[in-house]
Write a structure and sequence with these properties.
The chain is of the alpha+beta class. The chain folds into 2 domains: 11-24 and 85-174, Roll (PH-domain like); 31-80. Helices cover 41% and strands 26% of the residues. It has 4 helices and 8 strands; from the N terminus they run E-E-H-H-E-E-E-E-H-E-E-H. The chain has helices at 28-52, 59-80, 120-123, 154-174, and strands at 11-12, 18-22, 86-90, 93-97, 102-106, 110-116, 131-140, 143-148. The chain has a 5-stranded antiparallel sheet, with no helix packed on it. It has a 3-stranded antiparallel sheet with strand order 6-7-8, with helices on one face. Strand 7 and strand 8 form a beta hairpin. The longest helix has 25 residues, at 28-52. 21% of the residues are buried.
Length: 175
Amino acid sequence: MLGSASGDCYGYSSHGFNVRRTISSPFTFFFKVVTPSLWIAFGLCVTLSALLDPSTKNVFAIIALFVMWTGVTTLINYRNNFPLKRARLGDGVLVVSNYVREVRVSITNIDNLEASGCTWRAGWWRWPPCRVIITLKQSTEFGKTIMIIPGSYYKDVVDEIRAAIETQRRAKKES
């Protein structure tokens, strides 16, 4: 698939290079920002309604529930959702965004690609279960690991990145 929902198929970004397509899911923002916010807001609403209820006798238990709810939710999201990035594949570069900053990573900087949790048994507890983890040779502003939710079938995304890496290696050998 060469198109994308964001309309950047074969377009030029603000950085002036050719962007082939967005390889991360259009739902990345939802899982990175919206889902954690809703879970924490739900815990806050339940706690406030329990605290404001005149029949509430054990305030400590309610506060403990809130701390546990927000703590566990934050820890789960810290590991699974907060590291997610939006990624676009361009000519020789991977453009990675955390929705605040955007970083260009050379395709030649990619050290390893791994699909994580893409089977039912490995990822039944995490939604969406499948992640593509890109390990870099050199660190960027986002570290050495980039985690994305693939925008299409994960094997297609991994194959497309591998093809881009191979194209860069061949171009480098020829020059």
